[in-house]
Fold:
Amino acid sequence: MSMIEKGLGSNLPPTRNNLLEKLFKLSERKTNVRTEILAGITSFLTMSYIIFVNPAILADAGIPKEAALAATIYASVFCTILMALWANYPVAVAPGMGLNAFFAYTVVLGQGLTWQTALGAVFISGVVFLILTVTGVRQKIVDGVPDVLKSAIAVGIGLFIAFIGLKNAELVVANEATFVA
Structure:
């Protein structure tokens, strides 16, 4: 048994006095502290790019990069802790790159709105979505969308983000005749 395993107590049966067992019901979910810490580290490494990419996208819309960096980190930490402690669900939560790219490149740069006005619209839409969720209407709308269309939307957002990345890397450039070259 390695020092890490000993320190995390991965092979020790959970006891009634174990705070983590009481809080997260690890044995009921057939897991242990070691597995959960490794999963947490893996999740962080998988999504840590957001810490750098999100502020860069939002800075293109005029939001101060330092403020966007701080907001990205604070929102990710707060919401992930909320998921862990309130929902008792092991999911990392962070800003979605597709919506942020849409906000920056379509709403602010494409439509010519200021980023402050666009953030106001985001707040209002958040309130509307909260109301739709609480009333159960949002779930009915989601259930009404065919699975094929749900998959297509995810693919479209992925391609949009890839296109922005290729543009920022200058592998894709503007061309009057074909839009891109």
